[in-house]
Each structure stands twice: as C-alpha cells, then as structure tokens.
Amino acid sequence: MELEDRESDFGQGCLQRDGDRCVVTNTLSSEKRKKLEPANILPWSFPCYSASRKDMITSNLWTTLFQCFPEIRSVVQSDKINEIQNGLTLLSSIHRPFSDFQCAFEPITDTPHTYKFVTFEGFPAETKASLRNLPQQINFVTGSPPTPEDRLPHPVLLDCHYRLANIFHASGMTEAMGKTLRRAKKIKAGSLLEHDGTTDLASALYYAIWQTVAI
Question: Tens digits of per-residue pLDDT, 99-148?
Fold first, then answer.
C-alpha cells in the first residue's frame, strides 16, 4: 500500500476512534479556528533515510530503540509506524511539541489507559496557558461501547515516548532532537534530501539515551 494511502487510513482511523476530538483538550474538529491532526506516538520521521543509506539508517535506529526499550519490539516495527495504536488526535498547537518530546503522557500506575498530560521545557507558553483548566487525568477508554483495546493508543508506546521525553529533557537534547526529527521528516517527504546520507538520527538517539543512563 502506498505511503499516502497508509497516512490517510491512519489519520481517519485516529479521528474516528477519538471522536473527532483532541485527546488532551477534548476540542471538537468542528470548533472554529481549531485544527486537529493525527500524531504518531513514535514519530513518523524515526525511520528516516537518504536514498543511498535507507536500510542502514533505519536498521541502526530501530536496533537502538529495541535495545533501550525491548518491550516495543512486539508492538510496532519500522514498516508499521502508521498503525492506529501508534497514533493520537491532537490540536495542531500540541502536535508539534508532542513530536518534539516537549510534552508526553505520564502513565497513572494501576489505572489502565489513564495518563497525566505533562509538559517539559520548550513547550510553548501560550499553548501551556490555554491548558490550565484541563482534567488531572486523561482516560482513553471512552465511548459506548468502549473502544477495543487493540485500537487504543498502545500503553507501551506511550510509556516509551514519555521516557524518551524525560531522557531528552534531562540530557538537554530536547531542542536538538526536535530539530533533527523535523529535518528527518523533510528528508522523508523529499523536500530536503541529503545525497550523502549525513542525517544520522540513530546516533543522536543512542547518544542521548546512553549518556543519560551513564549519569
């Protein structure tokens, strides 16, 4: 299936499952001046590649992720990044900070599919101010009947994203990783193709994780 079709299926699946609402603010897509977007939990730009180094970069990155977070191996693979379990519906003002690891969903212990939305340094102040009256907890098991578990945002992926956000924040690499991920996304889209294959997201991720662990 073509990438465009997969993304369309992914986006429509997230919107339908989440009731055409942002999972953080509960904002409806029909509200004026509010734009909803499907967001990957593990970023779409993770399987980044150049024309000459696709296999090596993708393999190195996912090898690093699996070494650091072995539990994700059974949930998602590099060629299945757009499965609905790896997605959320977010306001556009939250989507980019989420993809840049400036915010995350902190799991609530002993309460399945329930999270606290947390922000880190670099999260836009204007957006943060608009979130002051949010509920303390966000539960993804909603609707009647409830969404089947195999279609909910996967707790392993949300936990991985949350831990990565903490690691990048603690290591001071949040801003750098955000820029790298956006650059990788442009490369994948074909608008910033580096013919020499110099974008090495795997090394940056590996450095950030293991430098923090070593401390």
Answer: 889 999 999 988 999 999 999 988 999 999 999 888 889 999 865 567 78
- Say how far residue 169 (Cα) sits from the centre of its chain: 15
Q: Which of 44, 65, 56 is nearest to 181 (CA)?
A: 44
- Burial code (b: 16+ CB inside 10 Å, e: under 16) for 96-112 equals bbbbbbbbbbbbeeeee
106's enclosing H/E stretch is strand 103-107
Domain ranges of the chain: 3-214
Q: Is 39 helix (H, G, I), strand (E, B) or coil?
A: strand
pLDDT in tens, 23-67: 999 988 877 567 899 999 987 555 443 444 444 445 566 777 888
Tokens of 160: 């991985």
